[in-house]
């Protein structure tokens, strides 16, 4: 492992002084009355020229100024409205997307109060930016009643493995998931449960960030998935609610309500959501090997699962404008996710196709995550384009996973032999503290500077117990029981500079330094990990606009994927009598280097990305113990993984009532690894097609069809496991009844009931072949009703600010 280099901080400071990057990409101005008085809290809307569709909005500050950030090239108008004044709309102007445009002063004339402003727009479902793809969730009918996890499963290049609680992006694992730019920090298994309980009605956009900038953590080879929640900006009380009910192989309900109250300097907001999912699942496992007597052995297991997931989630916060230039915010959230299951497992073992044994395993399981989080943030604007922000987070998790197994053993003729009662329990408290300080300064029209420091301090306990009852007494299995503790500290600093080379060419480069110290202790083994290392992580972006319809982007990034706490902790989790999950204290971080090239022609995108990762972490690499005939899954490092991705985004407007979105992805994955002293190579070509058609059938009546196809692919976190091809079809129809009547949506998920996962793993070097099928998905009919309440008019308001921009950290 790399050791800390004491000269790196000096190198970091030296390099940060020579970095350059692209421009502000912003539109600014100032609103005032005819007498010259600045007008605070006026509504400012950026509209596309031609069809006047809404692009972005904001509120003027106390001095009347406004700032619209991250604006793409195009022709625009700005609409300004305020109580007591006549609405004002600017002339059409061109914006080249690479510089800062100042509209100077906008004069409002006194007049009749504006009764109501209605902005009607439908954003494209997918929007490609320089470093990310943005999914506008509200633009999809199929989002109604969906969870965040379901939206991700339908997103281009995203693969969600519910069985192993893993998410991969464009064929690579190591995805970091954020909420409003803040990392959740929770273990992957709990994160998947949280996303499943999150209602899409609360989500504005989902950002797939494959080449993150320097102010993001260096963690995550695949990049970041940022879920941006909705915000209300009107004064007074505003909000919305949604009620959903579905029927498939069981029932499903997903309900939520959110509100926002804004008055003068104070803004209070909150949301509550409830989920209950009681849909059955079916798994099948087939395992083949040659035993010590050279006899072919086959084990076939069928699992009928009857799970119930129940989730309560609440989020509330307050922003207070201390003065014209400073705002302080407090955010609190809590989540209680309880997953219970009764399952019947039937396992048949044969030798030379002759039955030798039969095991019936009945298990009752509870997996409960309780989470509390808090954030305080402070942001001070020295001027419109220079600010300092501070964030502090405290996160607390408690995960409990008790399971009771009743094992009934039979011989090959189904004659009863004996019964065993086994219990496993896993208790995991996690405490995390994070502090972050960011500074941003638009030095001049061409240069923008960004600096920041961060510290993350984590403590993780893991208490695992496995035992067998003898009478009324539970006898612990010492080989499977352990208590471990991991403490980790990550200190980081970054610097970035944006530089406008010309009106058509912009550059951004950044450098991040991270220092990590980890110590893992086990009650039985003492200190098993004591690791300290530091790394530099450079990033670079260049963007060039050839003309109004054609643009080019190039990026480079270096990233790290650290092993999670569960990967390293020295314990074994009991799954069934012959299957276990095990920790591996020896697993090391993986380092990747990636380049990406994009061509944007009008609304179409062609993107090519190539990455090389050394020490890829395979989190569920199988290992077969021939003597005990046990299959053990655990984390290990592969030698190297090379990934090439080609992405084509092709939207088509057939007519003004029929639109098509095509996302086509080609993926080539090469894995090099050494197994038992022998070099092993594996290569797989994969195609993913995500096709969506939307129709406007009548006024306020729309429909949507989505098809998602995935050819055979490598599941990187299982090493050489291959996921066989699968496809899914989803349809939906939606009717809007006006502002007061709400919206009614009906959809069918997995219409063909075809979404079944089959994973094969042929490992002759391990004397093992497996075929596992997971049927998580069901054909589900879902009805959703949603409605807004409160003030529906666009009146004066104060833009909510929280010092937390795009941030934070890792840790699982």
UniProtKB/TrEMBL annotation:
Keywords: Cell outer membrane, Membrane, Receptor, Signal, Transmembrane, Transmembrane beta strand, Transport. Its main location: membrane. It comes from the Bacteria. It is found in: Cell outer membrane. Residues 792-812 are annotated as: Disordered. It is a multi-pass membrane protein. Residues 803-812 have a biased composition (Basic and acidic residues). It holds the Pfam family OMP_b-brl_3. One of its GO terms (biological process) is siderophore transmembrane transport. One of its GO terms (molecular function) is siderophore uptake transmembrane transporter activity. Gene3D superfamilies: Carboxypeptidase-like, regulatory domain, TonB-dependent receptor, beta-barrel domain. One of its GO terms (cellular component) is cell outer membrane. Residues 380-785 form the Outer membrane protein beta-barrel domain. SUPFAM superfamilies: Carboxypeptidase regulatory domain-like (SSF49464), Porins (SSF56935). This is Outer membrane receptor proteins, mostly Fe transport. It comes from Kriegella aquimaris.
